[in-house]
Write a structure and sequence with these properties.
Layout (H helix, E strand, L loop, with lengths): L1 H14 L3 E3 L7 E3 L3 E3 L5 E7 L7 E4 L4 E8 L5 E8 L6 E14 L5 E16 L13 E4 L35 H5 L2 H7 L3 E4 L3 E2 L5 E3 L2 E3 L9 E5 L5 H14 L3 E6 L34 H4 L6 H9 L14 H18 L3 E4 L7 H14 L4 E4 L6 H6 L15 E2 L2 H12 L9 H7 L12 E2 L9 H4 L4 H13 L3 E5 L40 H18 L2 H4 L2 E8 L2 E7 L4 E7 L5 E4 L4 H4 L4 E4 L5 E2 L4 E4 L3 E8 L1
Parallel strand pairs: 3-9, 10-11, 10-21, 11-16, 16-17, 17-18, 18-19, 20-21
Antiparallel strand pairs: 1-8, 2-4, 4-7, 5-8, 6-7, 8-9, 12-15, 13-14, 22-23, 23-24, 24-29, 25-28, 26-27, 26-29
GO molecular function: hydrolase activity, acting on glycosyl bonds
Keywords: Glycosidase, Hydrolase, Signal
Protein name: Glycosidase
C-alpha cells in the first residue's frame, strides 16, 4: 500500500506542471549591435528589445563602463540603457546582465521564487576608421545598386522576405544588381576619372510591394529602411558592403552612403512593436507633408500650422515619419550614423529629404559626426527652387534666427539653371545668363565650393533627354559641371547618353546599366559596346574629369565669371600659379571673341593649351569660337 501511494505521489509530482507567475524575459535585439572604445563622446544609449524586460534588474560589470540610468518606456518589451564609457576602457566583450524574479507554483499551495537571468554579450571594439576628405577636388558617381550590375545572381531574391520577386522584364520590380556588381567595375570608374562613389541606400528594405498608380512596385530604390543595422541581403549583406568599401579604398576611390533620418519603411521591425506612441509623428488623421519648403524658410510671414505639416507630415503613407524630438529616436538615429562610419569605413554622407527633418536634430547629428570625424563630408538633399531656400538649409551668411550647420547642399538650383539654360535660346535673363545669375548669389553660402552639383539624378528626367538629345548641349552642360565651383556628381549612365523621362514612373530613369548582367547583349562598360556617339560623350567626360584631378585651378581656385554677351559665357578658375579659361558658346554660328575685357585674368599670359584638342594657341587677343561649343584653355606665359 505504501509503495503504491509513493508511486502515485511521484506520478502526480512529475505530471503536475509548475505554474509560473510573472513572464519569463528574453532579449531579441540590442542596438547598436556593437560599439567602439575611444569615442570622443563617452555616452552611449543602448536599445534593448525583448519580451517582458521592463521590470528586469540590469547590471553591467565591465571595467571603464558605468550604467548611469535604466530608462523604462510605455512598451514593457524595451529598455534604454544610458552608459558612460571612459577614455581608458579597453576593447572586449561586455556582458549585459538582466535578472528578474518570477514566482513558480509548485503543487497546489506552494510557491517558490525563481530568479531568471539573461546574459547578453556586447562587443566593444577598437576604432580603426578614418574617413577620407571629400571636397571640390572630387568627382562623384551616383549608383542605384539594384540597377547597376549583378555580381551574384544567388542573392537576387529570398523566399523569407516581404518581397520575394526579381524580374528584369518588369520595370517596377527588383532586377538583381548588387554590391559585388559594383565592386567588379571599380576600374571603369577609375578610367572615367571618378574619385568617389555615392550609392543609393544599401540598408535593409524588407518592404512589401506597394500599389503606386496602376502597378505593384518594389522598394528597389532603398529608401524605406526596415533594419538600420543590416545591409540588404539582396545586395550582398554587411560583409559584401565591407568588401566593396575596402576594395574601393584600395583603388583610391571613396564611398558616400545615403542617409535617411526622416522616415522608415512601413515594415520596420520597431514599428511592429513600438517602444512608445510618439516614436512617430502622430496625427488624428493621416497627414501628408506639403512638400513645400516655404513654410520653413519664411521666418517673416510664415505660420505654425503650415510649418508643422511640412516638417511633421508623412512623406508617403508607407514611409512613417520619425519623431526626432523624441530623445530616444534622436539617439537611435544619431548613434547609427556614427556606428556606420566606424563599422564600414564610409567617407561621407548624403542626407535624403533633408528639409523634412527636424532641423535642430539635424544640426545635432552633423555636430556629432564632425566631432568624431572632423571634416567628414555631409551633403543634404533639399529639392528647392530658390537660392535663398537652398542657402537657408546650409551654413550661410544670412542673418537668421536659425542657423544650419550642414556643410553642403545638393545644388538643385544650379542643376535647374543648367538644364533651363540649355533648353533656351540666349537672351536677357535666359540661356547662359541663368548660370551667371545663379553663381552671382554664391555669397549667401559660407562655402559654395562644397555645393554638390549635378545635371540629373535618380529622381529626375535624364539630362540627355531634357536637352533634346543634342550632343553639343550635352558637352556644354557636362563641361560646365566639371569646371565650375562645387563638388560635381554624375548619375550612372549619363556618361553614355542614357536617356528617358519619368513617364510613366521613376523606373524609366532607372534603367539597368547595359553590360551589368551576364546575359546582356551590349556592354557599355567597354568602348566596343558603345556607339560612336556614346564613345564621344564618354571620352569627353573622361578627358575633363582626369584633367580636373590634377588642376588646382579648377578644384580649389577662385572662380571669376564675366557677364555673358552675344551667346558666349566666359569664366576663369585660377590660383596664384595657374589659370584656366572656360569659353562656352550657345550661339548658332561661329564667333570671334575679343579678349580685351578679360584683361584682369588674361593679362600676363601669351598663349594657351586647348585641353580638349591638345592644340597650342599662340595669340590670345582674339579667339575663334565654334558654334555651340565648349572650350577649355590652360593659360601659359
Amino acid at each position: 500500500m505504501k509503495k503504491n501511494l509513493l508511486f502515485w505521489i511521484i506520478v502526480w509530482a512529475i505530471s503536475f506542471p509548475f505554474t509560473q507567475f510573472g513572464q519569463t524575459p528574453s532579449v531579441q535585439r540590442v542596438n547598436p549591435t556593437n560599439w567602439y572604445v575611444g569615442m570622443k563622446n563617452p555616452k552611449l544609449q543602448l536599445l534593448v528589445y525583448g519580451k517582458n524586460i521592463a521590470d528586469c534588474d540590469v547590471k553591467i560589470n565591465y571595467q571603464g563602463v558605468s550604467l548611469d540610468k535604466v530608462n523604462k518606456v510605455e512598451n514593457p518589451n524595451y529598455l534604454f540603457l544610458d552608459l558612460t564609457i571612459s577614455p581608458e576602457t579597453k576593447a572586449g566583450q561586455m556582458d549585459i546582465e538582466l535578472s528578474k524574479t518570477i514566482k513558480i507554483q509548485k503543487g497546489k499551495k506552494k510557491f517558490i521564487d525563481q530568479i531568471v537571468k539573461i546574459t547578453q554579450p556586447f562587443q566593444l571594439q577598437n576604432r580603426t576608421k578614418k574617413p577620407q576628405v571629400i571636397d571640390s577636388k572630387d568627382f562623384i558617381y551616383l549608383i542605384l545598386p539594384d540597377r547597376f550590375s549583378n555580381g551574384d545572381p544567388s542573392n537576387d531574391k529570398f523566399a523569407d522576405m516581404a518581397d520575394t520577386q526579381a524580374d528584369r522584364s518588369n520595370p517596377y520590380l527588383r532586377h538583381g544588381g548588387d554590391l559585388l556588381g559594383i565592386q567588379n567595375h571599380l576600374d571603369y570608374f577609375k578610367e572615367l576619372g571618378v574619385t568617389t562613389l555615392w550609392l543609393n541606400p544599401v540598408i535593409e528594405n524588407d518592404q512589401p510591394q506597394t500599389k503606386e498608380g496602376d502597378a505593384m512596385r518594389s522598394a528597389y530604390h532603398g529608401y524605406g529602411f526596415t533594419d538600420q543595422y543590416n545591409v540588404d541581403r539582396r545586395l550582398g549583406g554587411n560583409e559584401a558592403y565591407k568588401k566593396l568599401i575596402d576594395a574601393a579604398h584600395a583603388k583610391g576611390l571613396k564611398v558616400i552612403q545615403d542617409a535617411v533620418y526622416n522616415h522608415v519603411g512601413i515594415n520596420h521591425w520597431i514599428l511592429k512593436d513600438l517602444p512608445m506612441k510618439n516614436w512617430l509623428n502622430q496625427w488624428d488623421t493621416y497627414t501628408n507633408t506639403s512638400y513645400r519648403d516655404e513654410p520653413v524658410v519664411d521666418i517673416t510671414h510664415g505660420n505654425k500650422a503650415d510649418f508643422n505639416v511640412m516638417q511633421n507630415g508623412w512623406f508617403v503613407p508607407f514611409l512613417p515619419d520619425l519623431n526626432q524630438k523624441n530623445e530616444f529616436v534622436a539617439n537611435y538615429l544619431l548613434q547609427h550614423a556614427l556606428w556606420t562610419v566606424e563599422n564600414f569605413g564610409i567617407d561621407g554622407w548624403r542626407v535624403d529629404t533633408y528639409q523634412y527633418n527636424d532641423l535642430p536634430f539635424m544640426n545635432r547629428v552633423n555636430d556629432a559626426l564632425e566631432a568624431e570625424y572632423p571634416k567628414i563630408f555631409i551633403t543634404g538633399e533639399n529639392a528647392v527652387q530658390s537660392i535663398y531656400s537652398q542657402a537657408f538649409y546650409v551654413k550661410n551668411n544670412i542673418n537668421l534666427p536659425f542657423k544650419s550647420n550642414l556643410p553642403s547642399p545638393n545644388d538643385f538650383v544650379l542643376a535647374n539653371a543648367i538644364n533651363d539654360a540649355l533648353k533656351e535660346d540666349f537672351n536677357w535673363g535666359k540661356g547662359f545668363n541663368r548660370l551667371y545669375s545663379t553663381l552671382a548669389a554664391d555669397a549667401l553660402y559660407q562655402d559654395s565650393n562644397l555645393n554638390m552639383t549635378f545635371v540629373d539624378n535618380h529622381d529626375q528626367d535624364r539630362y540627355f533627354s531634357v536637352i533634346g538629345e543634342d550632343l553639343n548641349k550635352y558637352k556644354l552642360g557636362l563641361g560646365f559641371l566639371l569646371t565650375t565651383r562645387g563638388v560635381p556628381h554624375l548619375y550612372y549612365g549619363t556618361e553614355n547618353l542614357t536617356k528617358n523621362f519619368k513617364n510613366p514612373s521613376d523606373a524609366e530613369v532607372r534603367k539597368d546599366f547595359e553590360g551589368g548582367w551576364a546575359d546582356d547583349k551590349v556592354n557599355k562598360f567597354v568602348a566596343s559596346g558603345r556607339t560612336e556617339k556614346e564613345n564621344e560623350a564618354f571620352e569627353f567626360v573622361k578627358k575633363i574629369a582626369n584633367y580636373r584631378k590634377n588642376s588646382e585651378a579648377i578644384t580649389t581656385g577662385k572662380l571669376t565669371q564675366y557677364l555673358p554677351q552675344d551667346g558666349i559665357y566666359v569664366y576663369f578658375r585660377h590660383t596664384t600659379d595657374k589659370t584656366v579659361m572656360v569659353i562656352m558658346s550657345q550661339s548658332k554660328e561661329e564667333k570671334t571673341l575679343d579678349t580685351k575685357r578679360f584683361a584682369e585674368n588674361i593679362g600676363g599670359f601669351s598663349s594657351a593649351k586647348n585641353i580638349m584638342t591638345d592644340a597650342t594657341i599662340s595669340d590670345l587677343k582674339s579667339l575663334k569660337i565654334p558654334a555651340m561649343s565648349f572650350t577649355l584653355l590652360e593659360l601659359q606665359k
